[in-house]
Design a protein that fits this description.
heterodimer, A: 369 residues, alpha+beta, 8-stranded mixed β-sheet, 4-stranded antiparallel β-sheet, B: alpha/beta, Elongation Factor Tu (Ef-tu), domain 3, 7-stranded mixed β-sheet, 15 strands
């Protein structure tokens, strides 16, 4: 479908149309000094006129000198919290004679519209799709939430210092996996180019007041996305990376990185593809009513690998090795792709600024030295 | 996935810290066929859920038999269950010992400690189909005689022409069988190495040395299987806990061919 032009002030109408269609709109908003994802009522809840500056172990919000709605990159949150919530009660049971009786009310699947999904984040959603719905077993809640979710994607028109989506071939341009895709152009005039990728996207787009794209507008949008790609400085050489990591299980580098790594699990919480979880079973004081809770877990937690007698991965070196090797290497064996989309969150949100792109470079250098 | 309620029919004490639970389907549960080596997630109501291999006869799916060692709060709660009480069951999960595919071959079963529990279904299968196999040997070791499982069945297994060779690490004065690690038993079993299929379960170090010793004696590594243990929490590949390198132990395992595991289990803390 041909792209159209949506005047910036019409973003309000777009969000209104989605709300009319029963979607709970969630998107970027400023809170606690960061751009996070939360419910938004309209465009004024977006981080209008804000941008972010990111570096290893550093994240700062800055004022822009324009009124851009999407003039920043990704923050500490990712969309996984809506399709794979950080904490869920899976069920409540009581004993009833010779069986267990489920006593929780079946809940309605929330119907989200994700406003402002970046190309790397669409790649991350697709990776989690393969984890939760692509194998022998399907996670029904994930599948239901994901199917309902309406994706309003946004092409990145700038990169952070920590971005490396070009290396991971996931961005910055959104190519598929969206209902609607926007490119924001802020200059003498402020508008979006908008195109639909699905029937439900086309239906919403048809209800919006848009105009045909002229050559200057198309060029302005394309130029901004290209500049985002060209300005990226961080890179990963992905050639043979699966084999590289798997032949370096015994590398001394793991001990070196463990001297800096705090095993805090921030990288795994911020990562849009990390999917590990744990369950906790609880009972009330009568012992007749029991619940199961699922919470995000991390391979950096010592008890993550616990089997009777102790933890398999006692050292930080072994836990960092597990995380990085899984993300960049064994993920291919398990799910047919890398587990990394190049969003850079693990670099920004690491309190000591460990940079996995640098760790890959060191590993390659260690082999040739 | 919800646990289905099964009813404890028997709680048999095997050793000081090991019991065998015999379960029958509760109100809504239905008997499910399983293959030797597979496991269920057993749920002690309100306490938690743990992966436990089937230790019973795969030829009789009307009841579930699980042999459990008390090593933590959940297994302790399971071991305390009395006849009539409920236990939650999800499963069966995982890969299996391909004993049914080894017709005409010799079978070597090597177990250490509680590792005999996931292998007993192999013994059951062999007993039901004894004519399908040539020589069958069970090599079994434990720390001390009081920790040996299923000793009451050894005589009937021997009567079905299964060689049962037993060893312990620490022997009291009246012990008349072998002393030492399981690998030292290999020479006491009568089987043809070239036509043997081996199934190993026990501590990783025991499986490593036994597999290596069998290989050096001429047993094909591709005909050697081991069963791995990791922290299986979901059993369906979602929770991530049981990963070992490229493998999810819950789905790709727990039973693996030896060559698939050989390089992974020698890496410390992988």
């Amino acid at each position: 479908m041909q792209a159209r032009v949506l005047e910036a002030y019409q973003l309000h109408t777009l969000i209104g149309l989605l709300r009319e269609r029963g979607y709970c709109c969630v998107g970027p908003t400023v809170r606690d000094g960061a751009i996070v994802y939360d419910r938004i009522a309209g465009p004024t809840d977006l981080p209008v006129g804000w941008t972010d500056e990111q570096a290893p172990g550093s994240y700062r919000l800055k004022r822009r000198d324009d009124g851009a709605y999407f003039g920043y990159v990704v923050g500490p949150h990712s969309w996984k919290k809506y399709v794979f919530p950080p904490e869920r009660r899976l069920w409540q049971l009581k004993r009833a004679g010779q069986q267990f009786e489920r006593v929780d009310e079946p809940s309605q699947t929330p119907k989200y519209a994700f406003i402002g999904v970046r190309a790397c984040e669409i790649a991350a959603l697709r990776i989690q799709d393969r984890v939760f719905t692509g194998g022998e077993f399907t996670e029904p809640e994930y599948e239901a939430r994901r199917e309902l979710a309406f994706v309003v994607a946004v092409n990145c028109t700038q990169s952070a210092d920590t971005c490396f989506c070009v290396s991971m071939k996931t961005g910055p341009e959104v190519k598929s996996g969206y209902d609607l895709a926007l490119t924001e152009v802020v200059g003498e005039s402020h508008y979006f180019t908008i195109r639909a990728g699905t029937d439900r996207g086309r239906e919403v787009l048809a209800s919006l007041k848009t105009s045909a794209v002229n050559e200057a507008q198309r060029s302005a949008a394309n130029t901004r996305v290209r500049q985002a790609a060209e300005s990226q400085t961080r890179t990963v050489d992905t050639e043979g990376i699966k084999e590289l990591l798997q032949r370096n299980y015994e590398s001394e580098q793991w001990k070196e990185v463990a001297e800096r790594c705090l095993s805090c699990a921030n990288c795994t919480m911020a990562c849009p593809t990390c999917f590990c979880s744990s369950v906790e079973d609880v009972a009330d004081l009568t012992g007749e009513h029991a619940e199961r809770w699922r919470r995000w877990d991390s391979c950096f937690n010592p008890e993550f690998s616990y089997i009777h007698g102790g933890e398999v991965r006692k050292t930080t070196a072994s836990r960092y090795r597990q995380w990085m090797t899984h993300k960049l290497s064994t993920w291919f064996d398990q799910f047919g792709s890398s587990g990394c989309v190049g969003c850079g969150r693990c670099i920004t949100w690491c309190p000591v600024g460990i940079d996995l792109t640098e760790e890959v470079r060191k590993m390659r250098a260690g082999e040739t030295s | 996935m919800l646990p289905e309620a099964w009813i404890v029919r028997e709680n048999l004490r095997e050793t000081e810290d090991v019991v065998t639970l015999v379960l029958e389907p509760g109100g809504s549960a239905a008997p499910t066929a399983f293959a030797p080596g597979q496991f269920n997630m057993l749920y002690a109501f309100g306490a938690g859920e743990v992966p436990i291999s089937m230790s019973g006869d795969p030829g009789d799916p009307t009841k579930l038999v699980h042999t459990i060692r008390d090593v933590g709060p959940v297994t302790a709660a399971l071991c305390r269950l009395q006849p009539g009480e409920l236990v939650g069951v999800r499963g069966p999960f995982g890969s299996h010992w391909p004993v049914a595919d080894q017709q005409g071959r010799d079978i070597v079963i090597a177990a250490g400690g509680i590792g005999l529990a996931p292998l007993r279904p192999v013994v059951h299968h062999v007993l039901r189909h004894r004519g399908d196999y040539d020589d069958v040997v069970l090599l079994y070791g434990a720390r001390r005689p009081s920790e040996l499982l299923f000793t009451g069945e050894f005589e009937s297994w021997r009567q079905s022409d299964i060689q049962v060779v037993v060893t312990v690490d620490h022997a009291p004065a009246d012990w008349t069988e072998h002393v030492g690690v399981v690998t030292t038993l290999i020479r006491h079993g009568k089987f043809e190495t070239e036509q043997a299929s081996a199934f190993l379960c026990g501590p990783e170090v025991m499986m490593r040395f036994t597999a290596a010793e069998l290989e050096s004696k001429g047993v094909s590594p591709d005909k050697t299987w081991i069963s791995m243990e990791r922290n299986m929490k979901c059993a369906v590949g979602f929770c991530g806990h049981c990963q070992l390198g490229t493998e999810f132990i819950c789905m790709d395992g727990p039973v693996f061919t030896w060559p698939r595991m050989r390089n992974l289990i020698t890496v410390r803390e992988l």
